Every structure is written in C-alpha cells, then in structure tokens.
C-alpha cells in the first residue's frame, strides 16, 4: 500500500497496439490502449493513479501510483505485432502493514493489537504466553489482530514484549503492567 508499481509487457518487435485489461477484485474493469502508428492512447474507467509510463523501449509500461487495496486484481497485457498477439497476466496482491499498539487492560494485563494489516499479522509474546489471538475482518480486506498476554499468577511485574510478524516487516514493543 502506498508504493508505486510498474508492469511491463514482453515487448516484441514492431508493436502496432498494446492494451492493458484490468479486472480489480473491487469495482469494475478498466482498460488502457496504445496505438503505435498514431502514438495515441485511450483509457476507459481507470482511476487517476493508473496510467501509461513512457520511457525506454518500443512501448509504454503501465504504472500504478500510490497502490491501494482497490487496485488488487488481474492485469493482462495484450500486445499486437507483426509476429502475432501476445499476452501476459499479472495478479497484483496488495500488502498493508499493520499498525502496532500495546497497552494494559483494566486487570493489568498487556494487550497487543496489530490493526488493519493485510494479510493478518501473527502475534506472539516474550516471555511465552498461552494467549490466543482474535481477528476482526474489515470491509476493505484488512484484518485487526488482538492478543492478551496471559501468564500464571504472580505478584511481580513482568515486562512483556509483543512480537509482530508480517510479510511487510517484523516489529516488537514491550510494556510492564
């Protein structure tokens, strides 16, 4: 989420037409067409952050600026040249890093939350805890994971560390309740 992504076609010699057909998981399809003979482009139903990227090479690439979860889906390039028609499909999966928070509840137990991550974050504790994580799914496809530190009863204050593991990175925070 928030990064830019550039998708390219397997460029062949003497391209006459290049089209991107986009089928997002959410919302309707979108298409971009480039004609090499007239150097003209056409777009249908594409959001403003999806556009052509002209540069090196015989044909433009597709650029998605500030990728959002709404851009997740299939991106198919259709390229026509003197050698035939060629296709390449990308499946874009968008990862959203969770927001980590650690606090103490009313009973003085540490509570760790990894909010709005995609996919769901994995939570663990140091020292080890027998806690179980609860997941709450959101409409945008993100998931909030909540875990409460549980330990055998003790009179001493324990410093607990919540460890968060996610494809976008790993984080930890410590607290003494």
From TrEMBL:
It is found in: Membrane. InterPro entries: CD200R (IPR040012), Ig-like_dom_sf (IPR036179), Ig-like_fold (IPR013783). Its main location: membrane. GO terms for biological process: regulation of neuroinflammatory response. One of its GO terms (cellular component) is external side of plasma membrane. It is a single-pass membrane protein. One of its GO terms (molecular function) is signaling receptor activity. Signal peptide: none annotated. The keyword Ligase does not apply. Keywords: Disulfide bond, Glycoprotein, Membrane, Transmembrane, Transmembrane helix. PANTHER family: CELL SURFACE GLYCOPROTEIN CD200 RECEPTOR 2, CELL SURFACE GLYCOPROTEIN OX2 RECEPTOR PRECURSOR. This is MOR1B protein. It comes from Sitta europaea (Eurasian nuthatch).
């Amino acid at each position: 989420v928030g990064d830019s992504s550039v998708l390219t076609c397997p460029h062949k010699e003497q391209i006459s037409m290049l089209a991107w057909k986009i089928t997002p998981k959410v919302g309707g399809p979108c298409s971009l067409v480039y004609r090499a003979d007239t150097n003209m482009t056409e777009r249908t139903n594409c959001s403003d952050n999806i556009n052509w990227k002209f540069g090196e090479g015989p044909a433009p690439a597709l650029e998605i600026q500030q990728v959002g979860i709404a851009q997740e889906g299939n991106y198919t390039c259709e390229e026509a040249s003197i050698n035939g028609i060629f296709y390449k499909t990308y499946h874009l999966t968008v990862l959203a890093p969770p927001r980590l928070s650690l606090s103490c509840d009313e009973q003085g137990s540490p509570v760790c939350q990894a909010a709005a991550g995609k996919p769901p974050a994995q939570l663990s504790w140091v020292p080890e805890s027998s806690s179980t994580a609860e997941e709450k799914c959101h409409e945008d496809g993100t998931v909030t994971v909540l875990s409460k530190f549980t330990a055998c009863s003790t009179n001493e204050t324990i410093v607990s560390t919540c460890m968060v593991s996610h494809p976008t990175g790993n984080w930890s925070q410590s607290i003494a309740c």
